[in-house]
Design goal:
single chain, mainly alpha, three-stranded mixed sheet, 3 helices, 70% helix, 12% strand, SH3 domain-containing protein, SH3-like_dom_sf, SH3_domain, SH3 domain
Length: 254
């Protein structure tokens, strides 16, 4: 005689189906019924014939053990997600810090280069201005009408040249800014590549550990089912407990 703990059976178990298990004469069936706060013990039944019992309603202890294993697996998955989140956050912080450091290093050099270029342009403009003024003064002293026209043209040329030089200075400033941004991007990619590789290695390690826990859960369930066998309680061989455990883990992992 064996004792079978089960939920309250509502199906006919006189006919064998794939989801049923065998029961022997005089086996005691502890029936549980559903309540608002969970399962509660109803009454004990003693069978007087050999028949089949729905497997979905049997062995409450097995369900409790599965719940314990699933909680461990879920806890490990949560740890993996937490580690991945922390690593990604650290990677973002490192990227931002690297960008700031590079900007602080490059900004003074870029500013100094721009100042040198501006100073050189100013010197060139001053020299050209002096030359033009000398020409204009010479033409003015000549006093002819034709020379006055030439003088006015030279003044206009000087004004146009000054505008052209100012435009060139603006273009040089924009080019310096673009080169600075490009240099920051290239150096940032090189510096952060190693951090990305380290992140991928840690994520793969965490996933490998999760797969090991999954295999152990399947093995533990199989051992528990084998230990429940005795001379008069036979588990239906057609049930694949590995598939059941695998499907259960898939649901938990979602």
């Amino acid at each position: 005689m064996s004792v079978i703990q089960c939920r309250k059976a509502t199906k006919d178990y006189t006919k064998k189906r794939d989801d049923m298990m065998t029961i022997q004469a005089n086996d005691i069936i502890e029936v549980y019924k559903i309540e608002k706060n969970g399962w509660s013990h109803g009454k004990n039944l003693t069978t007087n014939t050999i028949g089949w019992f729905p497997h979905a309603f049997t062995v409450l202890n097995e369900t409790e053990n599965c719940d314990s294993q699933s909680q461990d697996y879920e806890s490990l998955l949560n740890q993996e997600l937490q580690i991945e989140h922390e690593l990604r956050q650290k990677l973002v912080d490192v990227r931002q810090q690297k960008q700031l450091n590079i900007m602080f290093q490059i900004a003074p050099e870029a500013e100094e280069l721009e100042q040198q270029n501006l100073l050189l342009k100013q010197q060139i403009l001053l020299r050209e201005k002096e030359v033009l003024l000398q020409k204009c003064e010479l033409l003015r002293l000549l006093g002819t009408e034709n020379d006055q026209i030439v003088y006015n043209n030279e003044v206009k040329n000087y004004s146009d040249l000054q505008k052209s030089q100012e435009k060139a200075v603006d273009t040089l400033s924009k080019l310096t800014e673009e080169l600075t941004v490009q240099l920051v991007s290239e150096k940032t990619v090189c510096e952060l590549q190693q951090k990305v590789d380290e992140l991928n290695t840690k994520v793969r390690s965490a996933r490998s550990e999760s797969e090991g826990v999954k295999s152990k859960i399947v093995q533990d369930i199989g051992e528990q089912i084998k230990q429940q066998k005795d001379g008069r309680l036979e588990i239906l061989l057609g049930i694949d407990y590995c598939d059941i455990a695998d499907e259960y883990l898939k649901v938990v992992s979602k």
